[in-house]
Amino acid sequence: MTDAERCLWRHLRAARLTNTRFKRQQSLGPYIVDFVSFHAKVVVEFDGGLHAESTTDPVRDAWLARQGFRILRFWNNEVLNNTEAVLERIAQHLDRTPAPRSRKRSGA
Fold it and tell me: By 3-state DSSP, what share of the chain in percent is helix, strand and coil, each rounded to 5?
């Protein structure tokens, strides 16, 4: 993991942010994402200098979006220098997650 990934993982692991579980370095179809919450359908990605002119990121993001995921991208220096703002932005997207539908029993 990069320094930025280690920094944020301290806050995301063990459902520390809004009681939401994240997995790291998770395979989704043909891609591996930095962090994902399957319940919230949120992918968190970290970008260094190599991603500045990436032609593959938009294709990857479009594929993930078609699978129903929201993609949040942060620059590594943004995570390291402004961690609280990054966590707040992630939490805002987690709060938009629809509540699971309850299954009502018929009869009785």
Answer: 40, 25, 35
Cα(58)–Cα(80) distance, integer angstroms? 24
Helix (H) or strand (E) holding 6: helix 3-12
pTM of the model: 0.80
What is the rounded CA–CA span in Å between residue 4 and residue 77? 7
In the sheet with 42-47, reading across from the earlier edge strand, the strands are 23-28, 31-37, 42-47, 70-75
1-15 pLDDT, tens per residue? Answer: 788 889 999 999 888
Residue located via tokens 């699978």: 67
CA 83 to chain centre: 15
